Amino acid sequence: MNEEMAAMLDYVRAALPESGAHGFDHTERVVRLCERIGAQEGADMAILIPAALFHDIARPLEEETGVPHEEEGARIAESYLRSVRYPEDCIPAIIHAIRAHRYSSGIAPETPEARVLSDADNLDAMGTIGIARTFIRAGEHGGGIADATGHFHDKLLNLRDRMYTTTARSIAEERHALLVAFIETLEGEMGARIPPES
C-alpha cells in the first residue's frame, strides 16, 4: 500500500469504531475483497480502493443526523480527496461507487468499480462472517435471535442473486450455501420442543 492510501486508511480508521457490524474491521474486509475481485474484473484500483475505504465512513453519523451514510460518506470522501489533491478525474467515479454501494439505496452501480464495491460489501454480509455480523447487529440494536433470523430472510438470503460480477457470483455461491445451512439448522433448533416432565 502506497503512502497516499496508507494516509487514507488512517483517516478512515479514526472515524470508525474498531469493530462492530459496520466497524473498521468490516471496511478492511471489503477492501481485501475489492482487491481480489477488482483484479479479476479489471477494475481501476485508483478508483476502487478509495471508494472501498470510504464507503462506510459516515455510518456512525447516520443515526444522529438521519442523512443516509452513503450520501454523507460520498461528501466526506470528496472533501478529503480534494484536500489531498487526489487526481480529479478519479473523484466522480469514487463518489458514484460510494453512493451506489448500499443494498437499499436504489442507485444502480454503473461502473465496474461501483459494481465490485457493491459485490464486496454484500459478500461481507454472507457466509460465516455475515452470520457473525448479523448477531452483532441484532445486539447493537437491542434485538435477539428472532431479529437476526428476520434479517437473514429480509436481506441476506437475497444477496446471492444481487451480485454483478462473475468473480463475486462464484464466491457468493459458497457463502450462500453456508447461510442456508445455518438458518435451517438454527430454525430447526428454535422450533424444537422440550417434552414436559412426567
Automatic annotation (TrEMBL):
NCBIfam families (UniProt xref): HDIG (TIGR00277)
CDD domains in the cross-refs: HDc
Listed name of the protein: Metal dependent phosphohydrolase
An example molecular function term from Gene Ontology annotations: hydrolase activity
PANTHER family, per database record: HD_PDEASE DOMAIN-CONTAINING PROTEIN (PTHR33594:SF1), SUPERFAMILY HYDROLASE, PUTATIVE (AFU_ORTHOLOGUE AFUA_1G03035)-RELATED (PTHR33594)
InterPro entries found in the cross-reference section: HD/PDEase_dom, HD_domain, HDIG_dom
Domain of life: Archaea
Every HD domain range: 23-126
Pfam families xref list: HD
